[in-house]
User: Fold these one by one.
Assistant:
Number 1:
Amino acid sequence: MSQISKPYSAILDFKSGIIKAFKRRVQVKLSGLREFFSDRKEVDQILSTGEDPIIYEYFEHSQPEVEGHINFGVTTIYPGKVGKEYHLTRGHYHAKENAAEVYIGITGEGIMIMQTKDEEVAHLPIRPGDVVYVPPFWAHRTVNVGKQKLSFFYAYPSDAGHDYEVIRQKGFAKLVIEEKGQPKVVDNPKFIKS
Amino acid sequence: MSQISKPYSAILDFKSGIIKAFKRRVQVKLSGLREFFSDRKEVDQILSTGEDPIIYEYFEHSQPEVEGHINFGVTTIYPGKVGKEYHLTRGHYHAKENAAEVYIGITGEGIMIMQTKDEEVAHLPIRPGDVVYVPPFWAHRTVNVGKQKLSFFYAYPSDAGHDYEVIRQKGFAKLVIEEKGQPKVVDNPKFIKS
């Protein structure tokens, strides 16, 4: 108990979705998502123009990676599509698979898609005030289906870790695409079952 | 993995601090806080009139009490004082002491007082948008120092448990009282060191 962390606070603006005094800011650009979007030709087409837009970023309050601590922060996904598919996060299982996560929608309009390795799937809207509970064992990806930026607060055990590789290799069972101007959750034809 | 919980969502109203579709609502009345307020004569005086006001309540989304799950909810502390001391929660250590907690102020104006068994003390304001990180090993109590209800969102590991007994027996090192119309954090003359 000699290295007890000190309490502290950060400020979250419910209007803008901005969290201040974060410890770590990570920007994820299109080039880093090449294997996560379904239309790779479209990704390559955009990148070939010399553009590499930021698709999402997160502002994290990271704690020590030991049991009992909680990491929290805000993720912002910028609006847009790659082909028919809306901007998305890579999505992940937790490396420690029995770790849950809580999300709170702050700005914008999104859909969370979730799945287990037992092939269960689920999706839920995430809008301002939606508190989404992602139980242990569920991979989760967030998709911005609106015209504004989608910002949400998240909190998860700091020793949970992230497994992006399963998603990189196998994808999500569902995609969120625009059809006739509306978001639609459809089967991913390229999904590889575990 | 046969009993995997399903993802779900709840709605939190950032204006009112109300969370919908909670699983458990707990009201804590003055009579249940007799040993937690510093002025017990004043508590008994109020109770002797036949009044037993609700001091605070919480609306909880409880998950299974196993490692990896996260309980969350909203606590609302109604405004007022008992003697000079502002309305407060009992405050607790987690039974599993290495469990952190994250708070987000939604409505009203409060102060969180915190302490460790090593006699470290801390206090931080909690107002709308304040995200307060209570690290592992810190007891925490929230006090409503404003004229409106104080509501805050909280999230903590569902297997953390609550130890109210240490606080019941020894108190907090600090009290939050009104002095010349302003909140002030002062030493608790009755505090018993661990």
Note: Chain B is about 10% helix and 40% strand.
Number 2:
Amino acid sequence: MIPRYSRPEMTAIWSPETKFRIWFEIEAHATTALAELGVVPKEAAAIVWEKGSKAVFDVARIDEIEREVKHDVIAFLTHLAEIVGPEARFVHQGMTSSDVLDTCFNVQLVRATDLLLADMDGLLAAIRRRAFEHKMTPTIGRSHGIHAEPVTFGLKLAQAYAEFDRCRERLVNARREIATCAISGAVGTFANIDPRVEEYIAEKLGLAVEPVSTQVIPRDRHAMYFATLGVVASSIERLATEVRHLQRSEVYEAEEFFSEGQKGSSAMPHKRNPVLTENLTGLARMVRAYAMPAMENVALWHERDISHSSVERMIGPDATVTLDFALARLTGVVDKLLVYPENMQKNLDRLGGLVHSQRVLLALTQKGVSREDAYRLVQRNAMPVWRGEGDFLSLLKADPEVNKHLSDAELEEKFDLGYHLKHVDTIFRRVFGEA
Amino acid sequence: MIPRYSRPEMTAIWSPETKFRIWFEIEAHATTALAELGVVPKEAAAIVWEKGSKAVFDVARIDEIEREVKHDVIAFLTHLAEIVGPEARFVHQGMTSSDVLDTCFNVQLVRATDLLLADMDGLLAAIRRRAFEHKMTPTIGRSHGIHAEPVTFGLKLAQAYAEFDRCRERLVNARREIATCAISGAVGTFANIDPRVEEYIAEKLGLAVEPVSTQVIPRDRHAMYFATLGVVASSIERLATEVRHLQRSEVYEAEEFFSEGQKGSSAMPHKRNPVLTENLTGLARMVRAYAMPAMENVALWHERDISHSSVERMIGPDATVTLDFALARLTGVVDKLLVYPENMQKNLDRLGGLVHSQRVLLALTQKGVSREDAYRLVQRNAMPVWRGEGDFLSLLKADPEVNKHLSDAELEEKFDLGYHLKHVDTIFRRVFGEA
Amino acid sequence: MIPRYSRPEMTAIWSPETKFRIWFEIEAHATTALAELGVVPKEAAAIVWEKGSKAVFDVARIDEIEREVKHDVIAFLTHLAEIVGPEARFVHQGMTSSDVLDTCFNVQLVRATDLLLADMDGLLAAIRRRAFEHKMTPTIGRSHGIHAEPVTFGLKLAQAYAEFDRCRERLVNARREIATCAISGAVGTFANIDPRVEEYIAEKLGLAVEPVSTQVIPRDRHAMYFATLGVVASSIERLATEVRHLQRSEVYEAEEFFSEGQKGSSAMPHKRNPVLTENLTGLARMVRAYAMPAMENVALWHERDISHSSVERMIGPDATVTLDFALARLTGVVDKLLVYPENMQKNLDRLGGLVHSQRVLLALTQKGVSREDAYRLVQRNAMPVWRGEGDFLSLLKADPEVNKHLSDAELEEKFDLGYHLKHVDTIFRRVFGEA
Amino acid sequence: MIPRYSRPEMTAIWSPETKFRIWFEIEAHATTALAELGVVPKEAAAIVWEKGSKAVFDVARIDEIEREVKHDVIAFLTHLAEIVGPEARFVHQGMTSSDVLDTCFNVQLVRATDLLLADMDGLLAAIRRRAFEHKMTPTIGRSHGIHAEPVTFGLKLAQAYAEFDRCRERLVNARREIATCAISGAVGTFANIDPRVEEYIAEKLGLAVEPVSTQVIPRDRHAMYFATLGVVASSIERLATEVRHLQRSEVYEAEEFFSEGQKGSSAMPHKRNPVLTENLTGLARMVRAYAMPAMENVALWHERDISHSSVERMIGPDATVTLDFALARLTGVVDKLLVYPENMQKNLDRLGGLVHSQRVLLALTQKGVSREDAYRLVQRNAMPVWRGEGDFLSLLKADPEVNKHLSDAELEEKFDLGYHLKHVDTIFRRVFGEA
């Protein structure tokens, strides 16, 4: 997470101020719940809320205390005692640090996911708009980077939409994975704290109760969470790669918006580079990489060790901030993408009709030619076209074995673009629910 | 995937024979659907089914053809034509290889997942049985490898149960991710094949229709699938690590079953090593590693490139076979685990009551001592115990600042084991639905 | 490792037969060394060598024994005793299984690396040949996929050569990392075996003595080894990606050799796809992935645990066999690559001279224009060219602010291709030692 | 990279101020070299050095310009022009941004590596000191977490020393990988800049000339660099894991230093946890993870794309800062480690002599018993000891089949600790060059 690739709303979730505020709320809610259970005085809970709500937690002071006690939650509680006064001794009763840390981490992840979901909605809206705009804009479909058969630019975007729609659902699942709360004490036995406190806090924070915790909330949840972010990042890479390809000088079917005053290269003033999508490609690599340590975090020793903590202090912000930034950047790219339908048409025409080879193949088999023979006939007329030795339709017409089965008119009919687009509506209906 | 870590049922899913059989079924179903739509003769479909169903596909022959045409599906179709005769020309009409390959791969993954789900059910049953067996077997809970407070061995297993229960649900989600079918032609436009063929085949194979494909089924699905397997593997590592720790010579609270005739070491006849769980730790590393190339597979170029294929030919079998083996091995470990409650009790007693330090701390705060002072008082009586300089309870009783607030009887009451186990039923009910 | 992506010589290194033969040699050398030290009878060593050298180790029989004793080395030793007779009791004296296993694994890795080095030599030779062939074949250099300035195709290959030359050196380093031998007994103390036995075997096997082992050879060595293979694979991916780009329909400057009878697509007979380099891209992902578990293997517990073993049983063959195959495949691709200089020239000309923008920029600054103003002047004449609104040179000539500083002749001189190729010799000399 | 796990000297290398200073030096050296070649006026070079050396580059101002031009090097050059005045137009002549960026990145990596090497020297010195201190402190060697045979604590540290000594050499190799300089212009052809400029700058900066660059320095170098850091991190994890194991309550042979005022747990005042080494375990996971995107960075498109840049902006600092912190923290852990020889002895004695089983086995074979029979005899006397059913030596003495071959005195002699330590000197000499 570096400022260059960060947005303020997501970054704020990971600030010390936000963290200490959530810690306070967890502790204060616990004190209220304990007061309702008669474990601590009700007045104490009231004072904790009153003084703590008004206080600004002093990050530098907390850091100073931590340098002595070498324990962050104790440092916070000590500072809270400075604010709250003697009633502070009723705070954290029967709890362990991880009750606070893990529940807070999950609150932060839930908030982060809510931002990611909003990002995703924005991205989906942008893709949808452009997809309908170019629903019937013909362009060449490519497999292996080689011209295959015609598609539309809208179909490309429909695929992206369907993919990010799946990613949205995955994020919803991932959010559920980590939306839990544990207030279960030193080894998760509730020895010194009633399970009802956990239920109370979970409800207040919009979380589910963790069925069984062992000082910590189990890290398979977080592994699944960060693995999901890695998958989402990979889908970002896919669309980014598509744009990069489309902007290549020889292809030039679409292009990232290039603003006035922008410079593509310090040396070559003619350059307009797909730098945003290249950047997204790199960011995707990073988000993906964070899945691995998150998985290694699962096998904590016995009831817990703290090896996961340093990992999460890094990937918690790093993965969510980077993904938030990437989703927003990709949304901008899609939204403002310059699309060149004429260039698409030019490319479609570039191979002199080769892209219709399958239709000729099928027509031959319909006429009774075996699949193997038909393949051979079509291929032998296609290969010279690659070598610049003629036009595909003319070669086919001139091939006696071909025109034994297919008349010139029949052959010509196979070179119709519209033929390929007849099911675009079907696909759009499947993806968008309308066409 | 190596024989040593493979089980036959899963391995069979990935055999060439199985693959060609599924290919055949996809092609034959497609021919039937095309016949119903009037595109090919109904008799042709009947002959394809009749001859193909009886045939044993000759893997060596198919390989031989592939060496010439350098295309696996074409090789298969050529061989199929040798079996079916002239009607073979109605097979694969309007389809592209990936229609067959991708749908087949998903069928294989679905079958593999069904085995994994069955494995998981077996594992869950074993854990549940042992959890109830040891529901109230006291043992020390450890954080950081250091004695913390008492738990029960059943609670450890309840945590494992809850974790694998989540993994089961993740596998169900992962299965849904990849249970799709695409029969959409060269670039997914259905140019030469009616979408109803896809619907027909999907239904026959128990799959969902892929809403939009681009020759290939999008690989974000598979990335999510293999990432999920990586998370499941990480949970296996967690339980395996627990067993390894429990079997350590100094801990020796549990032990992998050691059979008659088994030898632990070629050099040291006294050895009984947790080799199965160490093995599982390594296998988990492998399954986890496969998530990374699966994610890199997502960003195929344009409508598709074939870089994902070599990856999937390897990780398809490697990840599912290894995970299947690991789940079965772990089930055996849990099922036959030797548990030593007396050693657990011995370890519980080892630190001379230090594990009750929190209760003394809380008791002091209840008496009006500030949290900070109480912590200091308890800690100063705990540290000598680590140095072997006395017994915790006696030291506390002898500390004038402590006994100003807590009588000997009050102190003794804090050293009660039962206190820690009062909520075991609550947790079991949460996890197992009963206690 | 699957047959499709395997070559026999490398696969043979990982066969059970090879493994048992190496095990035998280690044991037999040890017996000889022990005999020379007077620990075992000289005749015993002679008999071991004599009977063992002639024997064919029966893999099925060894597997059968292992099923009972659950220990592979003991199973082998038992089988060896069946072959050698009573003198077998002098075998493995004071050794531990890992002495055999780890030394054998390193012997296998050394042999594998020798094959990889031979592969690399073949690849370097092929690249070198094609680099000199196309040393002065002009082609456009592209940054960000956008035309930048002219290079030659030979320069592209010179870069690849330099990169694989570095990879070769890395392989040499990696070989040295794992070319060690440990015969140090149960925990590496030489308690029951004289260190001179280790020295003797090391010398016989062409290995270095492991300075300190702890039953096992430390796994940081293997982590470094497999990480290095991952880097080599990444370089393969780079060159493969270059070919894939060059073969794109719109670029079409080079192409994988397409054999007679080959079929590019089951549906579209016109297709010629870069399937070999796409395949290499996928294989690179796999080899890279194996680096991660190799690194996780380093932190074995105490003197050793066996979690590394399952990983290595898989990645040992998987990584080396796949990389061997990939290097050989890439060599074939380079060797037979179809290169189209005319298409390169056509692409060079495609942007109407835009690629000379930097030279105009520099010429303007030489005439006293500030860098910022020069940039603006050149950029404003370049951008219309992207929009298809004119020819760069003409636009420049017509710009009064430009021709205030540069005459038409001066401008024309900036559009000279040869200008860019004047240092090709320098670079070739740096890379190849000659030009 | 977060402040909690950062040290100032390493962090400073990655500050914008350092970066701009290096950029300036590269540009200024280039201007000098160009002046010597007569391309630009000597006075211009002098003025650039004079004004630039005194200037403090205004990061905020550069950021402001970048927001407009969207290009970081152009923004810097514009700011430099504000400082230098009209002579600034002679700066960056014939260069491209990557000449500056890549050379600067490598300078930063070289400096970072020099810090890492100094860290490593500190770590090696600490390990060496403690190794000699405990050269003959007996302790149990453990394989699989199970007692094997005696070693010394010094031997454990000797192994760590040898491992980090290898890591040091790997860092030296990694430094050489990235210690290169490229000043070769827009696509690496030196079209607009004489290769002698590159040679001049390389010499001034203590770098080697990059033999062939393509606008960028090839990223296989950086992949190797970051992979190496990942291996070093894995070795850190190994030693950290050893300490964590030794500190376990049941083992308690060593312990991280625990300072006055430190608190191990907010809830349990008795706790002393190995939090530093657990923390190192997590940090190792992070550094290892960064190797993966670094490898994915290798396959840039054609002469370059910029996808590597976002990755490197993150992992450049993240990996080096984290590793620097981790090495320093580990050095502190080793330096101040509390070692408990009495507890080591207690653990050595714990299994009642079982650890001598191999010697009895070997003694029996020396007496003519077959290896298989000897194994069986020893194992049947060892297994009851695990079950707490007697003492190993007594059981052996009472076994008629054993004492047929070995007298009581002979058996007792096999239980001598000193026997295992006779080659400690040999190993120390191998590792440290002295004993």
Note: Residues 97-133 of chain C form the longest helix (37 residues).
